[in-house]
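P.,

For your records, the input lines for the assembly:
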Amino acid sequence: MSAPLVAPQPVPQRADRQLGSAWLAGVCSGLAAHLNWPVLVLRIGFVLLSGSMGLGVLVYLMLWLALPLAAGAPKAPGIEAASRSGLRTVEAGYRVPADLGAMSAVALLGAGLLWFVQSAGLGLPTWALWPALTGTAGLMLIWWQADHIPNRSMKGLGGWRRWIAPLMAHWSRIVRILLGLVGLGTSVTLLVIALPDLPDTSQALLALAIAVVALLLAAAPWFIRARRSLSTIRQEKLLADARADMAAHLHDSVLQTLALIQRQASDPRAVSALARRQERELRGWLYGETSDAATVKAALVGSAAEVEDDHGVDVDIVVVGDRELGAELRPLVQAAREAMVNAAKHSGVSKVDVYAEVGDDAVEVFVRDRGAGFLPELIPADRMGVRGSIVERLRRAGGNATIRSAPGEGTEVRLEMKR
Amino acid sequence: MTDQPTEETTPDRPGPAAAHRVVVVDDHAMFRSGVKHDIGGRVQVVGEGEDVPTAVAAVLRAQPDVVLLDVHLPGGGGVEVLKQVHAVEPEIKFLALSVSDAAEDVIGVIRAGARGYVTKSISADELVDAIARVAEGDAVFSPRLAGFVLDAFSGSIDISAVDEELDRLSQREREVMRLIARGYAYKEIARELFISIKTVETHVSSVLRKLQLSNRHQLTRWATDRRLV
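Structure tokens returned:
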């Protein structure tokens, strides 16, 4: 929509793997995002590189281990807390449906290349080819599982079910890991069979070494994950301290409000104003509705909050889209505020609806109440309120204000500013 | 649970004889009793739930017309209740009721099958009305949800990605959503657009369907990217 909304995508500092658009492990997608290259170029590049003694596959596998998974943006504390305590269901990330055509084309290219290289005698010798193929397939199957382990909670189950439940829930994964291990095993067996004749002991030792290496490789993602989570924990500790201070501060503000409410219990308007203000503050902190007043939305929400506090009414505000608050839009925000104040003061009802739409070429604000209403043509010319502060102000700034009202039908002020 | 005779009725809605059977699901006992107190005279509260298992059990036992469902709930959230109940009884209707304004979660319950979303600050009259609407199979959009929808379906998508009818709102649907966001009741929208209330309801239901079925990448990404008021 509006240009400022679609911020130029920041190039990630470190490359990572993006499972959302992955065919396999997201290495190419991650690199493509990092280098700003088309992803298909990278994919074909890896396949072509694999033509020379499987180099592409090796590099791919190394990058698979080396690049961390793309982490989602940190959430606001309230949402994080709700996720942790299981109050919400975290949906699996959305996957871009893979383009089957492109996928099979690249796969065919790879297969054709493999066949060509092998039959031209430029590839791996036959004794190494089959172990390499089965081993790679097994390894990928296992590593793929490591990337896709959901953290489903098994809490709350007791007795034997606690031990069986994870097996039941993950049976398909377990089967796939077993399959992967079978692939690795085949590869190791083939390699051992192909070993040149050596004395028995060294042959056995060599076979053992190969098996150990294969197992270590299979377990590599888990080792790496454990190492990464250690450093994450260290960072989180620092954050937690900062958050504890914040929570203490928040606690104080809520307690303060509760005390004020008790003292003013006889005045319902004051109580509800206090409660709303506190609710706003708390919600802003918990759900990350932080407002820096530099955008249209923040400015409007801020004005609505002030009007709520000053006049003891509920202002329900919905803003669609957003844009930086330039000097040309300030009159619009001021006029909107004035309209809210008018509604709060004169409508006689305690609820004002505000809707703003920030579009590409226009910003529109509607301020509506269901109160007393009036006949717009009956406003005396000398009354400043509506005419001076809303209609005229906006017109001077190049905008447009229309007022719809009738006695008993409420009032709606529509403010518009074209780009 | 209770079977109180009901005195008050809202005009143009079914009378006490057809009072809607409602299950209230919320993890705060205080809120549950508050809701029962507010609307208990006009609908029949036939069950309560405080977390996912108790909610699912209560709903399946009581077979209510409408379930008032909190978005955040121990055991996996309202989404989990929706999934488990709909796996057995796809016909039971849900109305999400929440203080949570995280757009992601609101869109989440709607996509899981809730037929509407209202905030907990809703007045008792409006809530009864919303329950009746949902019970009749219509959708209930609060101004805030309408705002989310407009944002999610806004023009910020590249046109090449929009190839399905599901992925965009028709002109009329946009108008209806905008009026809801402006705080108009269905009746007022009908008058404003010179259409019948039934047509307004049809438009809203159609938007709900799009919201639930559209597989648009932007919709999901939008929900995770943005935290809107």
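Two observations worth noting. The longest helix of chain A spans residues 200-263. Chain A has a mean pLDDT of 79.

Regards
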